[in-house]
């Protein structure tokens, strides 16, 4: 939330600069090099969302209603059984909780191409969703490290920020695999791409900086802001 505050008040023009500054101020190098900034990729993603909102005069995006069509995962050979047969996908809505669960291969078509190390899964009859959504991937293999809520990896996103019905996330963009202690399983080429389909016309969200999106930010960031301790400094430029 501090990083959002820094962007909202114009202390930094980009989410990247705000995150870098916050991390540098929180990390005490005299006590070690353990980074103390915002590390979770989903949290960083939402700071980037807020930068986009601010650049559009605080107009919130339309909460586009979508359904999931397919998922591609690269770098699967070192993850569990290596072919995705031990994976389960859970889809959760910030407002409704769990809305879908699928064990790959049951209620979906799973194809693994060993030559390119790519898993391709297509889905049918996935309930529609909109707004803030979390995809959680669980793995039954004991060799796969389990993180938050005993998941192999997960990520949050907002349907209003999905471009061209696709969302591709590299290893550094995925919660849990971004940690270097998991890299013996999640190799450098590990990435996930989701393909969506809009199911009806977009419904405009209230044109305000408050609402569901702001509630989601509050849930993701629990650090309280003390304006007296925040000093303005020169923007360093950069691109989100």
Per the principal axes of the C-alpha atoms, what is the gross shape? globular
What is the number of beta strands?
A: 9
Radius of gyration: 19 Å
Determine the strand fraction and express it as a percent band: 25-35%
Percent helix: 10-25%
How would you spell out the order of helices and strands? HHHEEEEEEEEEH
CATH topology of the largest domain: Immunoglobulin-like
Main sheet overview: 5 strands, antiparallel
CATH class of the largest domain: Mainly Beta
Strand order of the largest sheet: 4-5-1-9-8
* Average of per-residue pLDDT values: 78
How many domains in all?
Answer: 2
Total DSSP helices: 4
Distance between the termini: 17 Å
Identify the CATH architecture of the largest domain.
Sandwich
Main structural class: alpha+beta
Spans of at least 5 consecutive residues whose pLDDT stays below 50 are 3-7, 25-30, 32-38, 207-211, 221-240
Describe this structure in words.
With 240 residues, the chain is α+β, with helices and mostly antiparallel strands. The chain has two domains: 2-60 and 206-229, no CATH class; 66-198, Sandwich (Immunoglobulin-like). The protein is 18% helix and 26% strand. It is built from four helices and nine strands. The chain has helices spanning 2-8, 15-26, 41-55, 212-220; strands at 66-74, 87-93, 97-103, 108-113, 118-123, 132-139, 153-158, 166-170, 191-198. The chain has a five-stranded antiparallel β-sheet with strand order 4-5-1-9-8, with no helix packed on it. A hairpin with a 4-residue loop joins strand 4 (108-113) and strand 5 (118-123). Helix 1 packs across helix 2 (15-26) and helix 1 packs parallel to helix 3. The longest helix is centred in the N-terminal third of the chain and has 15 residues, at 41-55. The radius of gyration is 19 Å and the shape is globular. Mean pLDDT is 78; it is low at 3-7, 25-30, 32-38, 207-211 and 221-240. Residues 63-199 form the C2 tensin-type domain. Pfam families: PTEN_C2 (PF10409). InterPro entries: C2_domain_sf, Dual-spec_lipid-protein_phosph, Prot-tyrosine_phosphatase-like, Tensin_C2-dom. One of its GO terms (molecular function) is phosphatidylinositol-3,4,5-trisphosphate 3-phosphatase activity.
């Amino acid at each position: 939330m501090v990083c959002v505050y820094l962007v909202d008040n114009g202390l930094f023009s980009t989410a990247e600069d705000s995150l870098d500054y916050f991390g540098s101020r929180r990390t005490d190098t005299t006590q070690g090099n353990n980074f103390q900034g915002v590390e979770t990729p989903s949290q960083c993603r939402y700071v980037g969302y807020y930068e986009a909102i601010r650049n559009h005069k605080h107009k919130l995006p339309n909460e586009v209603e979508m359904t999931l069509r397919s998922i591609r995962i690269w770098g699967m050979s070192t993850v569990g059984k290596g072919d995705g047969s031990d994976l389960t996908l859970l889809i959760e809505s910030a407002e409704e909780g769990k809305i879908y669960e699928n064990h790959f291969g049951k209620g979906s078509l799973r194809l693994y191409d060993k030559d390119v190390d790519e898993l391709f899964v297509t889905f049918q009859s996935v309930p529609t969703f909109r707004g803030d959504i979390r995809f959680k991937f669980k793995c039954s293999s004991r060799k796969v490290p389990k993180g938050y809520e005993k998941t192999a990896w997960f990520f949050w996103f907002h349907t209003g920020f999905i471009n061209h019905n696709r969302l591709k996330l590299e290893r550094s963009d995925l919660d849990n695999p971004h940690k270097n202690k998991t890299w013996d399983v999640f190799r450098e080429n590990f990435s996930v791409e989701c393909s969506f389909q809009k199911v009806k016309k977009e419904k405009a969200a209230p044109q305000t900086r408050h609402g569901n999106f702001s509630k989601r930010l509050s849930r993701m960031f629990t650090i309280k802001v003390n304006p007296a301790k925040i000093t303005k400094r020169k923007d360093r430029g950069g691109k989100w």
